[in-house]
Specification:
The complex is a heterodimer of chains A (586) and B (178). In chain A, 38% of the residues lie in helices and 16% in strands. In chain A, the strands form 4 sheets. Chain A has a 6-stranded parallel sheet with strand order 3-2-4-5-7-6. A 6-stranded parallel sheet of chain A has the order 11-10-9-12-13-14, with helices on both faces. With 178 residues, chain B is α+β, with helices and mostly antiparallel strands. Chain B folds into 2 domains: 5-96, 2-Layer Sandwich (Alpha-Beta Plaits); 99-171, Alpha-Beta Plaits (2-Layer Sandwich), CATH 3.30.70. Chain B has helices at 5-8, 30-41, 70-82, 92-95, 113-124, 145-155; strands at residues 16-25, 44-54, 59-68, 86-91, 98-109, 128-133, 136-143, 160-165, 169-172. In chain B, strands 5, 6, 7, 8 and 9 form a 5-stranded antiparallel sheet that branches. Chain B is elongated. The chains are: A alpha/beta (586), B alpha+beta (178). The A-B interface holds A 122-123, 126-127, 130-131, 134, 151, 183-186, 309-311, 313-315, 318-320, 322 and B 1, 3-5, 7-9, 25, 28-29, 32-33, 36, 40, 71, 74-75, 78-79, 81-87. Bound molecules: thiamine diphosphate and magnesium ion.
Chain lengths: 586, 178
C-alpha cells in the first residue's frame, strides 16, 4: 500500500510545518522527541533555534509571532520539557499570541503508567491553551497539525499544544495537504453586525466628549486594521488612548494620541477616560489594570466595544453597543457608514473637550527631575529613545517599574515593535522575546529594557543569542530592588521592604563577558549618551548595566482599588488611603 | 444574542438558575474542558450530565444547571461557545419553554409501618420499586428536580439510606430543535 503520501509521523510533522509556511522553530530536544529531531536533521527548510530553557522557547516564539504577525512554533520534549513551557503558554494565552507548541509524549501504550518523563500534558495545558490535541493515531496527525494552525491563528489568536507520543512519530501514516483540512466547528465571526455598526457611528458622530480606547486586538487584526484605525481617528479628530498591549497601533507622536491609559497611564488620559461621554473600545478588554475601581469606571459614558471574542463583551463592564467581529472588518464598515452620511462631529463640543484635555496635559504627569549625580531611570529610557528612534528598533521588556517607564517614555509610531508581557506579567519574558524578534528581523536593532531582578530569570538565554549570532541588547535599569514590588511596599505596606532588595547581584559586566558578550556600565547621568552609543556600535549581544536611583517610584499611579480621577502624581502626595478591600486587589 | 445594557447591568441579588444545553464533539477531554471552564472561572454549577447522542457524527450533549446573574450566565454561554469542540450552546431557561427531567434511585431500609408508608408515598409520586428485599427498597423516580427533592424529603424519616441522581436533562418543547 505504498503511496507517495505515506511517511513517518515525524516526517508528517515536518511536512505540515513546511506547508504551513514555518521557517523557524524554537526548541529543546529530549528522548520523547528524538524521531522529530532526526527528521529535522534531514530537512534544511526549517531553522531550529536551540534555547537554554523551554520557557524561553515559548517567549522567543512569542517574540517572533508578535513582531511578524505569523504564528510562533515551539518543539519540546515530554515531561519536564512540557511543564517548563507552561509559563510561556499561559503568557501567550493572556496576550493572545498565536503559538503552536509541539510536545513529545511517551509511547501510547505507556500513557497512564507513570513512565519515565511522562506528564499529563493535555491535562496540564488545558487551562493555558486555546485548544490541545493528543494524537494517538498517526493517520490523524496531519489533520491535527493543520487544525492546530487554524485554531492558533484564527479569531482571537492564542497558543495550542499538539502532544505527540513517540510511537506515533515513528509509525507510518498518510499525509494530508493543508487545503484539505477544514475545522469542523471553529469559525470565528469576522464581519460585524451592520445595524450595530450604524448605531455606533451615529453615537460617535453625536458625542461631545468622545474617546477611543484601543488595545492589542488592533495589532492582532493586522496592518490593515492599524491603517484603518489611524484613518478613522483622524477623520473624527477625537482623542485616542491605548492599553499597554496596543501601543504602536496609533502613532505615539501624533497630536491626537493621549498616551497609555491605566494604572500608570498619564493624567490626561485617565481623566479623559473618567469624564468622557462616549468610549469607543477597539480591541481592548477592560483589564483591571485599565479600569481601576469598577463602580467608579467612566460613570458618565456610553460604551461601544468592538471585539472578535464574544466572551470579552459584557465580561467586566456593561456595554451599550457591542460589535462582535474582527477589528479590521468592523472599522472598514464603520468608515464606509461614516463617509456615506457626511457625519460631522460637533465642532464646539469637541473644541471644549480638547481644551479640557490640554489643561490636564499641562500637569505634565510624567515629569521628573534629573540632577547631575544619579541617573533617573526615566532619563535613561528617554535618552535611549532619542538615540534609537530613527532606526528600525524593536523594544521588549521584563516586568516591573522599568517596563512601565519604557511604556511611558519610549514612543512607538508603528505596530509590532513593542513586546511586553501584559496579561501575565512574566518576569523573564524580555530576553527570550528579543531573541525571537532578532531571529525574524536579523538586521533590526532589538533592545530588552530590563530590570536587574527580572533579567536573572532567563539570563541563560544570552548563550542562545551568542550561539545563533543574535545581537540583542540588554539595557538593564538596575535599581538594586524589585522596584515595582518595593514601590507597593512603600506606598501600601508602611515601607517594610520584605525580601525585595536585590541582594548578591552578579557583576553584569563580567556576566556579559562570561557569555562572550560585551558588558558596559554607566553610573553618571553625563555618561548615559555615551554608553548608549557604545552599545549601538558593538557588534554582538551587549549588556548595559545602567545604575539608577534606587528609590525612584513610577508615577503617575492609579493605585488598585482607586478610580481614574484619584491618581497619585508624585511621592509628595503619596498619602494614599487604601481600604482593606482595595489592598486585597492586586 | 441580546447583549444590551439592560441585560448586562445586574443586581447582585439577581441570581437565577439556568439550564444550558451544550452540543459537543464526543472526543476525549471534552467533559474536562467544560468542567474545567466552570471550576477555573468560579462559576456555580448545580448539575451536569453528559452522554453521546449521535453515534454517527460523534456528538454528545452536555446539560448544565448553573446559577448566576444575567451577566454571569451570559459569560458562561460565551465562554462555553469559545471552546473549540463546542457546536452549539442553548440557554433553555431563556429560549424555552423546555421539558426538564431528572431521575433518581432512592434506597430505604425499614420494616413494619415505615416500610408500608414508603410504598404509599412512592405510589403517590409514581416512583417504582425496582429492587426489594425483606427490609429494603430501591425506588426509581423521574420528574422535575423539585419533585425529586420533595420525594426525598418525605422518604427521609422512612429509612432513606442512599440516593443517586442523574442531574437534569432537558429539551425545548414543540417542533423547534434544541
Ligand atoms: C515570574 C514573576 N515572579 C514574580 C513577579 C512579581 N513581580 C512583579 S515586578 C517584580 C520586581 C521586578 O524587579 P526588577 O526586574 O528589578 O524590575 P524593577 O521593578 O526594579 O524595574 C516582581 C517580583 C512577576 N511579575 N513575575
Ligand atoms: Mg529592579
Amino acid at each position: 500500500m505504498a503511496s507517495s503520501n505515506e511517511m513517518t509521523g515525524a516526517e508528517i510533522v515536518i511536512k505540515a510545518l513546511i506547508d504551513q509556511g514555518v521557517d523557524v522553530i524554537f526548541g529543546y530536544p529530549g528522548g520523547a522527541v528524538l524521531p522529530l529531531y532526526d527528521a529535522l536533521f534531514e530537512h534544511n527548510a526549517i531553522r531550529h533555534i536551540l534555547v537554554r530553557h523551554e520557557q524561553a522557547a515559548v517567549h522567543a516564539a512569542e517574540g517572533y509571532a508578535r513582531s511578524t504577525g505569523k504564528p510562533g512554533v515551539v518543539l519540546v520534549t515530554s515531561g519536564p520539557g512540557a511543564t517548563n513551557a507552561v509559563t510561556g503558554l499561559t503568557d501567550a494565552l493572556m496576550d493572545s499570541v498565536p503559538i503552536v507548541c509541539l510536545t513529545g509524549q511517551v509511547a501510547t501504550h505507556l500513557i497512564g503508567s507513570d513512565a519515565f518523563q511522562e506528564a499529563d500534558t493535555v491535562g496540564i495545558t488545558r487551562a493555558c491553551t486555546k485548544h490541545n490535541w493528543l494524537v494517538k493515531d498517526v493517520n490523524d496527525l496531519a489533520r491535527s497539525m493543520h487544525e492546530a494552525f487554524i485554531v492558533a491563528t484564527g479569531g482571537r489568536p492564542g497558543p495550542v499544544v499538539v502532544d505527540l507520543p513517540k510511537d506515533v512519530q515513528l509509525a507510518k501514516g498518510l499525509y494530508l495537504e493543508p487545503m484539505r483540512v477544514q475545522h469542523k466547528t471553529y469559525r470565528p465571526k469576522l464581519k460585524g453586525d451592520l445595524a450595530s455598526i450604524r448605531e455606533a457611528v451615529e453615537m460617535i458622530a453625536a458625542a461631545k466628549r468622545p474617546l477611543f480606547y484601543t488595545g492589542g486586538g488592533v495589532i492582532n487584526s493586522g496592518p490593515g486594521a492599524v491603517q484603518l484605525l489611524t484613518d478613522f481617528v483622524r477623520m473624527t479628530g477625537y482623542p485616542i488612548t491605548s492599553t499597554l498591549m496596543g501601543l504602536g497601533a496609533y502613532p505615539a507622536s501624533d497630536k491626537q494620541f493621549l498616551g497609555m491609559v491605566g494604572m500608570h497611564g498619564k493624567v490626561e488620559t485617565n481623566y479623559a477616560m473618567h469624564d468622557c461621554d462616549l468610549m469607543i473600545n477597539v480591541g481592548a478588554r477592560f483589564d483591571d489594570r485599565v479600569t481601576g475601581r469598577l463602580d467608579a469606571f467612566s460613570p458618565g459614558s456610553k460604551k461601544i466595544h468592538i471585539d472578535i471574542d464574544p466572551s470579552s463583551i459584557n465580561k467586566i463592564v456593561p456595554i451599550d453597543v457591542p460589535i462582535i467581529g474582527d477589528v479590521g472588518h468592523v472599522l472598514e464598515d464603520m468608515i464606509k457608514v461614516w463617509k456615506s452620511k457626511v457625519h460631522r462631529p460637533d465642532a464646539d463640543a469637541l473644541e471644549k473637550w480638547w481644551s479640557q484635555i490640554k489643561e490636564w496635559r499641562a500637569i505634565d504627569s510624567l515629569k521628573y527631575e534629573q540632577a547631575d549625580d544619579v541617573i533617573k531611570p526615566q532619563y535613561a529610557i528617554q535618552r535611549l529613545y532619542e538615540l534609537t528612534k530613527d532606526r528600525d528598533v524593536y523594544i521588549t521588556t521584563e516586568v516591573g517599574q522599568h517596563q512601565m517607564w519604557a511604556a511611558q517614555h519610549y514612543g512607538f509610531d508603528k505596530p509590532n515593535h513593542w513586546l511586553t508581557s501584559g496579561g501575565l506579567g512574566t518576569m523573564g519574558y524580555g530576553l527570550p522575546a528579543a531573541i525571537g524578534v532578532q531571529v525574524a528581523h536579523p538586521d533590526a536593532l532589538v533592545i530588552d529594557i530590563a530590570g536587574e531582578a527580572s533579567i536573572q530569570m532567563n539570563i541563560q538565554e544570552l548563550s542562545t543569542a551568542m550561539q545563533h549570532r543574535l545581537p540583542v541588547k540588554l539595557f538593564i535599569i538596575n535599581n538594586r530592588y524589585m522596584g515595582m514590588v518595593r514601590q507597593w511596599q512603600e506606598l501600601m505596606h508602611g515601607g517594610r521592604y520584605s525580601e525585595t532588595y536585590s541582594e548578591a547581584l552578579p557583576d553584569f559586566v563580567k556576566l556579559a563577558e562570561a557569555f562572550g558578550a560585551t558588558g558596559l556600565r554607566v553610573e553618571k547621568p553625563g555618561d548615559v549618551d555615551d554608553v548608549i552609543k557604545k552599545m549601538l556600535a558593538a557588534e554582538g549581544p551587549v549588556i548595559v548595566d545602567v545604575v539608577v536611583d534606587q528609590l525612584e517610584n513610577c508615577f503617575p499611579m492609579m493605585p488598585s482599588g482607586a478610580a481614574h480621577n484619584e491618581m497619585v502624581l508624585s511621592a509628595e502626595d503619596k498619602a494614599i488611603e487604601v481600604s482593606a478591600e482595595a489592598a486585597a486587589l492586586l | 444574542m441580546a447583549l444590551t445594557r439592560e441585560h448586562g447591568v445586574s443586581d447582585v441579588e439577581d441570581v437565577r438558575k439556568h439550564t444550558i444545553s451544550i452540543l459537543v464533539d464526543d472526543e476525549t477531554g471534552v467533559l474536562a474542558r467544560v468542567a474545567g471552564l466552570f471550576s477555573g472561572r468560579g462559576y456555580n454549577i448545580e448539575s451536569l450530565t453528559v452522554a453521546q447522542v449521535d453515534a454517527k457524527n460523534k456528538l454528545s450533549r452536555i446539560t448544565i444547571v448553573a446559577l448566576g446573574t444575567p451577566m454571569v450566565i451570559e459569560q458562561i454561554k460565551a465562554q462555553a461557545n469559545r471552546l473549540v469542540p463546542v457546536h452549539d450552546v442553548v440557554d433553555l431557561t431563556v429560549d424555552g419553554p423546555a421539558v426538564e427531567r431528572e431521575m433518581a434511585l432512592v434506597k430505604t431500609v425499614a420494616s413494619g409501618e415505615k416500610r408500608v408508608e414508603s410504598l404509599r408515598i412512592a405510589d403517590i409520586f409514581r416512583a417504582r420499586a425496582v429492587d426489594s428485599s425483606h427490609n429494603s427498597f430501591i425506588f426509581e423516580i423521574t420528574g422535575s428536580t423539585d419533585k425529586i427533592d420533595s420525594f426525598i424529603d418525605l422518604m427521609r424519616p422512612l429509612g432513606l439510606t442512599e440516593i443517586s441522581r442523574t442531574g437534569v436533562v432537558a429539551m425545548v418543547r414543540g417542533t423547534k430543535p434544541t
